[in-house]
Structures are given as C-alpha cells and as structure tokens.
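seq:
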Amino acid sequence: MYLERGEPMEKIKAFMKRKDVEISLKRYGIDALGAMAQGLFCSLLIGTIIDTVGKQLNVPFLKATVLSIKSGDVLIPYTVGGLASLMSGPAMAVAIGYALKCPPLVLFSMITVGFAANALGGAGGPLAVLFIAIIAAEFGKMISKETKVDILVTPLVTIGIGVFFSWLIAPALGKAASSVGLFIKWATDQQPFIMGILVAVVVGMALTLPISSAAICAALGLTGLAGGAAVAGCCAQMVGFAVISFKENKWGGLVSQGIGTSMLQMPNIIKNPRVWIAPTLTSAITGPIATCIFQLKMNGAPVSSGMGTCGLVGQIGVYTGWVKDMAEGTKTAITAMDWVGLVMISFVLPAVLSLVFHLIAKKLGWVKDGDLKLA
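struct:
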C-alpha cells in the first residue's frame, strides 16, 4: 500500500532535498571535479612551483628541510613546497566538500578522508579522492544535525565512511586510473601523430567545456608526450579564442581568455557551435607538432597538462619537468630547441593558426562579427 501511494519514495526525496543531496552529472561531474582541480592547484601545483623557485633561485628557506616524517625506518625530508604537495589529498577533498555545500563538521572531516583516499589510491589518487570524497560528503550531509550529539556523530560517520571506502576501493580506483593513463602515454609514444591529435583535441575541448581538464589529467597521471599534447590542445583553445575574439573583446578579453580560461566562450559556443572550429582545428595541428617535431613532454605535475596558459601553469609545468629530468639524469640540459618548441606550441602557432581558420570560417559565412563577444 505504501509503495502504491509512493509515500516512502516521497519521504526519501523530501529528505534528500532538505539535505541538499543532489545526484546529478552537473553536481559531481562539473562542480565537484572543477573544485578538485582547484584543490590540486592550491597544494600539489603550488608546492611544485615553490620547490622549483627555491632550487632555481637558490632561496635557502625554500630549499631547506622544514620537517622530516618517519616512514618505517626511513626519515622523509620535506621542504615548504613538499609539505604543500603532501596535502594534496586533503586539499582536493575539502574543495569537493565545499563544492557540495557540506556543513562545517562534514567539511572539516573531509581532511582525513582526502588524505586516506589519496594515499591508498597511489598514482591514481586524485580519481580515488573524487569518488570517495563525494560518497563521504553526501553521507556526512545526511547525518549532519540529525542527532543531539552532532559534534561526535557527524565526524565519526563522515570519516568512518570515507576511510572505509578508501580501504575498500581506493587501491582499485587508483590502479584503474593509473592503467588508463599509462595506456594513453604508451599509445602516444607508439603513435605520436595520431595520439597527438586525439589527446590535444579531447583535452583542449574539455578545458573549454564546463568540466576540469586539469582534474582529468591529474586523475589519469597524464605526463610525457601525452602530457605535451594535452598542453598543446589547451593552449590552442585559450590563446586561439583570445586572439580570434580580440576585435570584439579587446585587451580585457585577450587577458581573461588567454591567461584565464576559454570557458568564458561557452555561451557563444552554445549559440553558434561553429565558433569552436578554429581553436579545435588548431589543436589538431599543434598536438602532433608537439609530439612529433618538438618532442614536447610534460614531466612536471600531471595537473599542469590540463591548464594550458592559465596563469602560465602549463609552461611552468613543462619547465619544472625539464628541471626534474635533469636532476634524475634523463636530460642533460635545457636547449634552445626546447624553448622554441614551448613558445611555438604555447603561443605562436595557436595565435596564427586560429586566426587563419577563423578568417576562413567568416569568409564561408559560418561565423560573423559579434559571435565571440563576451557578456
């Protein structure tokens, strides 16, 4: 009788609505994923940049060991940048919790959840954090303020569920993400031309869409030639849109898209999808040029592969990769060709090629003046 009248289901729906638990692609695939990328940026990426600055500019404080943590019989030294990178799991989880509008006690409990998921997820930790943080956050939200001892129950439930699922599925999720990333990197090494096109186009379009290309690259651990192709695709979108819309948006638009995000063009893409042709065709060209001609590799933090020219993070990531390779002995020096390749792939080719394709699209009547005007 209850099932026929739908009362239990209505009660569940009402409860979920009251707790702001919304199971949707937008909430998890856009909001949470995008927030995770910001968490990565504020921990792993910033930590990598701090370490690089310390080493390259010989800043004693940034190079010094500020803390050593014992792991088994080994003491692991950490610099300021190293400590920031160490906190990437908690940073991602808290960012996800914030995007999911967690109450304070749930949000603070996400620190432990993120650390556990990232540590147990191994190389694919970011993907494990994404899934497990969402599960823990939603369960935490549902129990929050439902008892008279909320200060005890909410953290216990959030941390308990988060750590349990970290133990249960984080290793498998991490291994799966790592395997996919390794396959993409292997395929790019075997077929740099074809994969250069595919990776550059797909990651570049993900950067412009309201999802996080940076988080995707981080979750898959996308480095090496594949990471270089991803950088090329992202730069093609950002610099491309910045240049072809200069007539409509002037210098403000050039900076906001070229160093900010090409996602600003999404309303215009929805109105006229053909405005996306020029940057996307450009990424299909610069991707294989990066992999086949310049051998551009991203061996810095994987999250940098999906950042393009946003804050010049992609370029800083490539540079930190060079430094890392030199320290490991796999690269002898940073050559003039390295710099030429980075500048050409990041700025020159995206600007020139996008403008050429855009002018052709305008001549064909596919795009007209005003189509790229930012609101």
